[in-house]
Amino acid sequence: MTEASSRRLGENLRAARLSAGLSPVQLAVASDVHLATVTKVEQGTSLPSVSTLLKLAFALGRTASDLLAGVELPAPGPPRHSAHEIE
User: Fold this and answer.
1) pLDDT of residue 78
2) pTM of this prediction?
3) How far apart are the C-alpha atoms of 68 and 37, rounded to whole Å?
4) What average pLDDT score do residues 13-32 get?
């Protein structure tokens, strides 16, 4: 993901948090995500894992898609196969 995409995700998260009337600490508690993670994602300096993104979205009453709105995602690569599938 690009730096601009990280910033956009952070902006979306912050806007959703403010719309919900939550402080960063309250969001961290409600989502069971470390405060440092919430802060870094909002600042656009860190990307959350899928599970963290889902926790944040759920705590805000949003979907992951809401938080990813306007974020340029990388194109999917070719399918991966396990060693057991390739013979």
Assistant:
1) 81
2) 0.84
3) 17
4) 98
CATH superfamily of domain region 3-67:
lambda repressor-like DNA-binding domains (1.10.260.40)
Residue 13 CB neighbours (<10 A): 26
DSSP structural state of residue 44: T
User: Measured between alpha carbons, how far is 21 from 5 in angstroms, rounded to an integer?
Assistant: 24
Domain locations in the chain as residue ranges: 3-67
Res 31 pLDDT > 70: yes
Count of C-beta atoms within a 10 Å radius of residue 83? 6
Reported confidence tier of residue 77, pLDDT bands at 50, 70, 90: confident
**C-alpha separations of 12 from 3, 23, 60 in Å:** 14, 15, 11
Q: Does an H or E element contain 45, and which?
A: none
